[in-house]
Specification:
It is a single chain. This protein is mainly alpha-helical. The chain has helices at 7-30, 38-63, 67-88, 92-115, 132-136. The chain has one domain. It is built from five helices and no strands.
Length: 143
């Protein structure tokens, strides 16, 4: 049965997500100002990536998914954290390794989504709906 989160339980991840969006706005606006240093830009990028990973894990903790969904959530958060570390890591070779790990984890995550793993019910807190009705609808062929 899908879980509908109440406002109190959604507050922490929504607040963190909102702070993350504000950080992303600063990051993008900073792209238009040459005075916005590369170091500040990289720090804001890392902050945004790390904070959304934390917000997502808190969201999952509140949602209490099945164990396999937790594994997938941790995989996605790890990808964001590696990408975050890549933004500010001082040694270029290690930064490249972190970037490659992030890419591998993101690709694995999308692949698992395409494979339908883990199987889960739609999440009403994100206004998801079941596609079962769509699966039974007749398919029209272009003629």
């Amino acid at each position: 049965m899908p879980i509908r989160l109440d406002r109190v339980h959604r507050a922490a991840p929504v607040i963190l997500g909102s702070v993350t969006l504000a950080g992303v706005a600063v990051l993008v606006v900073g792209d238009f100002f040459p005075a916005f240093s590369n170091r500040t830009h990289d720090a804001m990028a890392a902050f945004s990536l790390a904070l959304i990973a934390v917000a997502y894990l808190i969201y999952q903790a509140v949602r209490r998914p099945a164990h396999l969904e937790w594994v997938k959530a941790i995989l996605l958060a790890a990808a964001f954290l590696c990408w975050s570390a890549n933004q500010v890591w001082p040694q270029p070779h290690q930064a490249i390794v972190l970037n490659d790990v992030a890419i591998a984890l993101f690709v694995l995550d999308v692949f698992l989504v395409m494979m339908g793993w883990p199987p889960s019910a739609p999440d009403e807190s994100f206004a998801e709906t079941s596609s079962e009705a769509d699966d039974t609808a007749p398919v029209r062929k272009a003629g």
